[in-house]
Amino acid sequence: MKHFFKRNFYYSLSCVIVCLLALNLMSCEDDNKQEVVYYTVDFDSTGGSAVESQSIKRFDQIVKPENPTKEEYSFAYWSQDAEGGQAYDFEKPVFKNMVLYAYWTPEFYMVTFDTQGGSSIDPVKVKALQAVEKPEDPTKENARFIEWSLDEQGSNPYDFSTPVEYDLTLYAQWGKATNTVIFDTDGGSTIESVEVAYNQTVSKPIDPTKEFNEFLGWYMGSSEFDFATPIQRDVTLTAKWKPIKVKDIEGNIYNVVEINGIFWMKENLKTATLNDGTTIKVAKSLAENDLSTSSTPACCSYDYTEANWTQYGYLYNKATIITNKICPKGWHIPSEAEWDSMVTFVGGADNAANRLRATTSWHSYSTNTTTDEYGLSLLGAGWLETTTFKYMSLLSGWWCGDADSSDPVGSYKYKSISYDHTNISTGKSKYAVSIRCIKD
After folding, report:
1. Pairing mode, strands 73-79 and 124-127
2. 374-392: per-residue pLDDT in tens?
3. How confident is the model at residue 8 (pLDDT cuts 50, 70, 90)?
4. CA geometry: angle at 228 spanning 224 and 230, to 5°?
5. Secondary structure of residue 22 in the 3-state scheme
6. How sure is the predictor about 26, in pLDDT bands with cuts at 50, 70 and 90?
7. 381 with 414: CB under 8 angstroms?
């Protein structure tokens, strides 16, 4: 019995093994019968010559086809991106259906000329990386062609030596066909403006005239204008004048002298009216004389006489200076710096008096040689101390127009000379002294 069971066990085991081997053989036979997988690769030449599709066995590589052709384009590469992104790597295995797209670079670009209302210019086909030839300038009624630009506003002028790398549009830029030349006579007689064709010259007009002034010429900025200069934009030419005389608001007329480019009155000021029309007090007697203490503008003549006013002008108090309106419009009281600049020019403070003093009105027994070589003709007008007139023909002073910044009460200075000294000095005072004006 024991042997019977043992024999049956081995028999059953043998049957199981045989079945397993049979199943394994059947499985191998099925594997050998499995089909090979192929994928389709299509080639989209994007307008170029046709390229046949390829059937590629799974995990094999695409055979790179012969490059397609396309009129006026050069083939660059194949890409899986229809927009021509990264070039396809033909070493990669294929594991799906796919489409490859041809990417091209143009052999020519189109350059379009937008004349912005001018005469038309045909587009031009330009070989890639070559420069486009500049066309003949377009025309436009009442306008002048300036240049071509990459933008409509003209902020990016085009350089025709630039290689063309893409289709582009150039925009014509226009300017005025004529330019206006304005003649600013600066208070002189009127000269009408004229229109001048671009890049042409303007004819010199007749010289304007201006009362008490000599015409020196037409200026653009600080330089005299050359009428042989072609006009390429609107310009304003300004008349330059040399004052010969100047008239104050009351009609008093003063001769003028030029020293180092600055125009000075040659006589002391005589007006009792500010240039805005406001009258100031004129003291006619001792009883009316409060010039040294008054906070309102006031003046008087030496000894209150008309004869002295005629020759020497008025003596003015500090309050008059503060108004900054006593000189004719366009003129002012010279500052301390302007006085000093003039004094330096004529030889310095130690020598200026002889060169600036008038040859008359000073005390006759002076031993100094008065030359008045610059024609300023400073007079020995004296001054007023409180209520006392002093020093006529011996000493005289002239106001500086700026306050002394170092003085907390804002005193004003004056320049003075005497009959017997060669120097010109500076002082601070509540005196009433003379005024000389200079042109702005």
Report:
1. unpaired
2. 999 999 999 999 899 999 9
3. low
4. 105
5. helix
6. very low
7. no
Residue 375: phi, psi to the nearest 5? Answer: 75, 10
Q: What pLDDT, on a 0 to 100 scale, did the predictor assign at position 368?
A: 65
Cβ(313)–Cβ(382) under 8 Å? Answer: no
**pLDDT tens string 160-203:** 999 999 999 999 999 989 999 999 999 999 999 999 999 999 99
Strand order in the sheet with 438-439: 245-247, 253-259, 262-265, 438-439, 331-332
Residue type, 329: K
Pair 213, 241: CB distance under 8 Å = yes
- Whole-angstrom distance, CA of residue 73 vs CA of residue 51: 16
- The shares of helix, strand and coil residues in the chain, as percent rounded to the nearest 5, are 15, 35, 50
Per-residue pLDDT at 402: 86
CA 264 to chain centre: 34
Contact 417, 304 (CB under 8 A): no
Q: Is the pLDDT of residue 367 over 50?
A: yes
Q: What secondary structure, in 3-state letters, does 2-44 show?
A: HHHHHHHHHHHHHHHHHHHHHHHHHHHHHHHCCCCCEEEEEEE
Residue reference for tokens 């671009």: 198
Give the position of tokens 């050998």: 32
pLDDT in tens, 55-96: 999 999 999 999 999 999 999 999 999 988 899 999 999 999
Q: How far apart are CA 313 and CA 216, in angstroms?
A: 30
Instruction: Report the alpha-carbon distance of residue 335 to residue 187 in Å, rounded.
Output: 26
For 321-358, letters b (16+ CB in 10 Å) and e give beeebbbbeebbbbebebbbebbeebbebeebbbbbbb
Produce one character per residue of 199-237: b if its CB has 16 or more CB atoms within 10 Å, e if not.
eeebeeeebbebeebebeebbeeeeebeeeeebeeebeb
Q: Which residues pair with 239 in a beta bridge?
A: 218
* Triad 300, 415, 212: Cα angle to 5°: 70
Output the CA torsion 66→68→73→74 (10° steps). Answer: -10
Q: At 304, phi and psi to the nearest 5?
A: 65, 20
| DSSP string computed for 41-102 | EEEE-TTSS----EEEETT-BPPPPPPP-BTTEEEEEEESSTT--SBP-TTSBP-S-EEEEE
CA nearest 254: which of 327, 197, 343? 327
Neighbours of 256 (CB within 10 A): 21
**What value does the mean pLDDT take over residues 45-63?**
95
The answer to whether the beta carbons of residues 345 and 259 sit under 8 Å apart is yes
Rounded Cα distance between 433 and 300, Å, is 10
Enter the tokens of residue 207.
């010289």
